[in-house]
Amino acid sequence: MKIGWIDYLNTVPFRKAIVNRNGKVIIKGVPSFLNKLIYESKIDIGIVSSAEYIEHFNRYFLFSDVSISSYKKVYSVVLVSDVPMERLEYIYLSKESKTSNLLIEIILRKFLSKDTQIGFDIPSKMKTGFLLIGNKALEEKQKFKYVYDLSDIWFSYTKLPFVFALWCVRREFYYQSLDSVERFKLNLKSSVNEFFKKDIKYLKPDVRNYLQNLDFSLTKEHILSLERFSSYLKELNLIDKMPNFEFV
Fold first, then answer.
1. Is 241 helix (H, G, I), strand (E, B) or coil?
2. pLDDT 10s digits, 93-137
3. Where are the domains of the chain?
4. What are 28-64's pLDDT values in tens digits?
5. What is the fold of 2-69+162-235?
6. Which of 16, 156, 174, 213 is the most exposed place for a label (fewest CB within 10 A)?
7. Contact 129, 88 (CB under 8 A)
8. Measured at the alpha carbon of residue 30, what is the angle toward residues 34 and 72, in degrees to the nearest 5?
9. CA of 49: how far to CAs of 69, 96, 207, 220, in Å?
10. Does the domain formed by 77-158 have CATH 3.90.1150.10?
């Protein structure tokens, strides 16, 4: 079983599920890298961008009950700049992300009706903002005058949590390894439960506060949010068709 793992602070509650290797091969990378690996069948299970599932839903099944989500502020997915958002001419996207890049486009086009340019080139003479995610966002956002939390913006317009990442399994692997996939799914849920009952108290207060602010569940409300996110992507022609959300 090849498992894709994102070594960000927000994955710590799942860590006990991968500690006992027992036939597991752990492959680490940023979200965009793991998206590529699971799409190319180079890993079997992974915590991947919500956008990866939405775009290629017919290749995967979801694990129920687990995600990386947030209500209101997430703190680790932010747009930073030295000028207000309304004055930005260009936003430099994150090469580590897929979901966050699409979310900033929805915020600009659907919520704010702005035509701000976005991409992966940094223009020298344009007022530029930067999309930061994960540990980099937590460490570097204080260097900037303006910090906009993307999850907080999403919540203000939708009143729904935002789902950044999902645990997915390739359909072919699932059918080949039903028992081992089911055990791993249960281990993920128990890892989260044990972390918040026992382990979190040993962390530094700022880390503890950050993780307690996140939401690691996947309820009907989360699926509703994923459907809303998908509908905006479809309206903007960023995906070809609406996904079905199917679980192991």
1. coil
2. 999 989 999 999 999 999 999 999 999 987 778 999 999 998 899
3. 2-69+162-235, 77-158
4. 999 999 999 999 999 999 999 999 999 999 999 999 9
5. D-Maltodextrin-Binding Protein; domain 2 (3.40.190)
6. 156
7. yes
8. 105
9. 11, 10, 22, 19
10. no
